[in-house]
């Protein structure tokens, strides 16, 4: 009995040690000089209850970004998000627009503030774990552009692309809370 208990303790100790060694520090693979692109699509449908179908609204916006990662201040990384293209479609009681900045002669109509984003750069400051520390909008951001993006806090625009990772190492299958603004 004593011998089997001793073997069990040795086996349990070996398993516990191997579990401790199996932890991994998760980090985003973002290094100065890294570049990538993505498109962010937001779409909203609104059908007021008890209203006629003519009261329904539909808005779709697609922003195309080119991202360049550079070393920032205080150990942060700066992810410069340059807007390459804006697509927008709005069908509301107050406005109708069908705009694509890549199509010559396309009229943004009521989406003019969004159209002004083409060529502008937002700088997102990140720590190594993907926590957004700040978002610096373009200095000449046109009035109304942020409102048309549908965000009161610019962090919410970029948060889905930088999942906050845990501070320390974790074991495979572990879980952690990641608070993200939307």
Note the main attributes of this structure.
alpha+beta, six-stranded antiparallel beta sheet, 4 helices, 6 strands, disordered N terminus
Question: What's the SSE blueprint?
Answer:
Blueprint: H1 2-21, E1 35-46, E2 57-71, E3 77-91, E4 96-100, H2 112-115, E5 121-126, E6 132-136, H3 145-149, H4 155-158
Antiparallel strand pairs: 1-2, 2-3, 3-4, 3-5, 5-6
Task: Produce a short descriptive summary.
The protein has 182 residues and is of the alpha+beta class.
Describe this entry's structure for a reader.
By secondary structure, the chain is an alpha+beta fold. It has helices at 2-21, 112-115, 145-149, 155-158; strands at residues 35-46, 57-71, 77-91, 96-100, 121-126, 132-136. Mean pLDDT is 81; it is low at 1-19.
- Bin the strand percentage: 25-35%
Number of helices: 4
Q: Specify the structural class.
A: alpha+beta
User: Considering DSSP H and I runs of 4 or more, what fraction of the residues is helical?
Assistant: 10-25%
Query: Which sheet architecture does the biggest sheet show?
Result: 6 strands, antiparallel
Average per-residue pLDDT, rounded, comes to 81
């Amino acid at each position: 009995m004593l011998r089997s208990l001793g073997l069990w303790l040795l086996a349990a100790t070996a398993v516990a040690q191997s579990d401790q060694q199996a932890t991994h520090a998760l980090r985003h693979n973002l290094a100065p000089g890294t570049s990538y692109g993505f498109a962010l699509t937001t779409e909203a449908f609104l059908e007021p209850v008890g209203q006629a179908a003519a009261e329904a609204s539909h808005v779709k916006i697609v922003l195309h970004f080119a991202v360049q990662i550079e070393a920032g201040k205080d150990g942060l990384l700066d992810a410069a998000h340059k807007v390459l293209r804006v697509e927008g479609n709005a069908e509301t009681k107050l406005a109708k627009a069908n705009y694509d900045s890549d199509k010559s002669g396309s009229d943004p109509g009521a989406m003019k503030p969004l159209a002004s984003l083409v060529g502008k750069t937002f700088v997102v400051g990140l720590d190594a774990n993907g926590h957004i520390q700040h978002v610096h909008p373009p200095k000449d951001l046109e009035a109304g552009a942020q409102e048309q993006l549908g965000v009161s806090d610019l962090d919410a625009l970029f948060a889905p692309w930088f999942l906050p990772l845990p501070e320390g190492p974790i074991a495979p299958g572990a879980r952690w809370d990641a608070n993200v603004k939307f």
